[in-house]
Write a structure and sequence with these properties.
homodimer; alpha/beta; Rossmann fold; 3 domains; 7-stranded parallel sheet; 7 strands; 54% helix
Chain lengths: 356, 356
């Protein structure tokens, strides 16, 4: 196994694309070797800029992603794209068009595209996305675009894994601007009003700017919420540093609200420029470092939880023991709380005893 | 605190609705007292029948829920309703109409309605829904309807917490019947083709029946997927019992595909009858017991994981320690894997040492 991973790494370091695809698959599916790969890539992370692209269905996210990719390629950068699709079980195959649209960039050998589908129920998608982005970062891509195709809370969680997040809206969504949940306004670093040649574009832009103005007093923050873990308690030093930097009143970031007609390529330059300015802002204020430190801590949290759960629920003895308690549980003689406590009181040994 | 919970319980046991609402809020928001409440209610669970109602947006789920509620009330049953709304952050307020529609039953004192919104990212919604349903069960409701309003994987997870699940489809979804993901077919115990006075209803019905026929050979199963935990390994005895019962070839369940025009009240009798027949089937074959045992084990898993995470991430010392490692992590001297392992090697003491 380790020898195999070793050979994979040689090819990976030599920039071979088959090795990249293999490594991404191992990480995405949490197959054996994932810890070796991510552990080894860890010191190399932080070269790439990560851009999130999110928005309601039909807003043109894939088109914007394609435009951004072309612009980055023209500037000489390599681009890795992670498309995340946490779609409804009831509306499966509606996205073929998007994938076809992306074909124009997918043939470029310096562009790597990976689509990730919903996985399980445990909010593992954001974690997996971050890890796949790490592999792309470690491979040496200059730009990583994380596009969320579907709808739902996971969209926000995925977007939070980026350095800068584009929120793409369309005039059709104008009526419901008030219904955009708070989270959307929180994560947006740049707004793009796509299809802005349609009626209602100006009004939508005004509405978004009005909302941005209203929350200006609240200050700018992008705190990744993680599993109910209060990262602020871990991240205090970095956070304080960032807040210090931002106490320079003249250096705050108000998300620009850009107009675009992505199918005609209009607005690309402004989008790229705004992202560059946002990145410069993050670097200048310490926000970039803070975000990256937050990502690292999130990764520790995820790895620790994944291991705990693996050790607990894949242990044959534990399963047998739990199996033997089901009758008592069913009869109401014991409660799930009692059994869980018993289980955990034996868990310390389990964690320590087990090698990996 | 405990005295307060004690008084809450007295009022709860006396059937006071304010106490029910308080208990539900405590459980839904995982506030202190949740363990007392759920632990104490555990022996009372299993009286209520739990019916899940799911389907794509616009299929008429709320109308079906309202009809079911009225039918159950006419039969003399009390009804608790849990509406779960894991909607997109981009399409917030679209569901007011549904809530208004339900007003006809919401004034009935023997009907309790609670709406639950998306919570956090960790797939905690299905667990919370099950726990709120447990409170309703413990309070003495005869029927519990769990309606999922939104879209996404969580819909399926929530539906899995019921004894019987209605999947509501509409002719408009006919074209995309092939795109219904496998999970939808797996969880459906009864299909309802709503708005069946519209064109395409017969075709949709035929399509669904065709799909059901195709998978008949695969046998009928409703295995709750939980967090990647392979429940089959825990649940073996019950499962074997159920499979034995089902080896009686003549006693299998093929989900009926019913027609309804819910806004006109057409089809209610057939839906109620089918649910009764399905419940009788579950009782007869041991499937009901198996489902309820699975729910109990799932609860143990959830409680154990919640506690582990709480102890780990709310421990001041752990946080400080982790805080002190961020610089090394950032510089690449250590990897998140090393830190997670160090963390877990100390976790045994943490679990054992901490009282609660």
């Amino acid at each position: 196994m380790t020898g195999e991973i070793e050979r994979l790494f040689e090819a990976f370091d030599a920039g071979r694309s088959f090795a990249l695809a293999r490594a991404v698959s191992i990480v995405e599916n949490q197959r054996p070797g994932i810890d070796d790969i991510l552990g080894r890539l860890h010191p190399r992370l932080g070269r790439a800029r990560r851009v999130g692209v999110t928005g309601p269905p039909g807003a043109g996210k894939s088109t914007i992603t394609t435009l951004l990719t072309k612009a980055y390629r023209e500037a000489g950068y390599t681009v890795g794209i992670v498309c995340v699709d946490p779609t409804s079980p009831f509306t499966g195959g509606a996205l073929l068009g998007d994938r076809v649209r992306m074909e124009s960039v997918s043939l470029d050998p310096d562009v790597f595209i990976r689509s990730m589908a919903t996985r399980g129920s445990l909010g593992g998608l954001a974690a997996s996305t971050r890890e796949v982005a790490d592999v792309l970062d470690g491979f040496g891509f200059d730009r990583i675009i994380i596009e969320t195709v579907g709808v739902g809370q996971s969209e926000l969680d995925v977007a939070r894994t980026a350095d800068s997040t584009l929120v793409v809206l369309v005039p059709e969504s104008g009526d419901s601007i008030q219904t955009l949940k708070a989270g959307v306004m929180e994560i947006a670093d740049v707004f793009v009003i796509n299809k802005s040649d349609r009626p209602g574009a100006d009004r939508l832009r005004n509405d978004v700017e009005l909302m941005l103005g209203l929350r200006k007093g609240a200050g700018y923050s992008n705190v990744p919420a993680h599993h109910g873990v209060d990262l602020k308690r871990i991240m205090n030093p970095a956070r304080v540093a960032r807040e210090d930097a931002q106490s320079n009143e003249s250096d705050t970031w108000t998300p620009p609200v850009l107009r675009a007609v992505a199918v005609k390529g209009e607005g690309t330059t402004e989008i790229v420029d705004s992202l560059d300015r946002h990145f410069a802002y993050l670097e200048r204020t310490g926000g970039l470092r803070a975000r990256r430190r937050e990502r690292i801590v999130e990764r520790v949290v995820e790895v620790a939880e994944r291991r705990m759960r693996k050790r607990l629920w894949e242990d044959e003895k534990t399963m047998q023991w739990l199996n033997g308690r089901v009758d008592e549980l069913e009869s109401g003689r014991v409660t799930p709380y009692m059994v869980a406590d018993e289980l955990l009181s034996g868990f310390g040994d389990l964690v320590k005893g087990d090698g990996k």
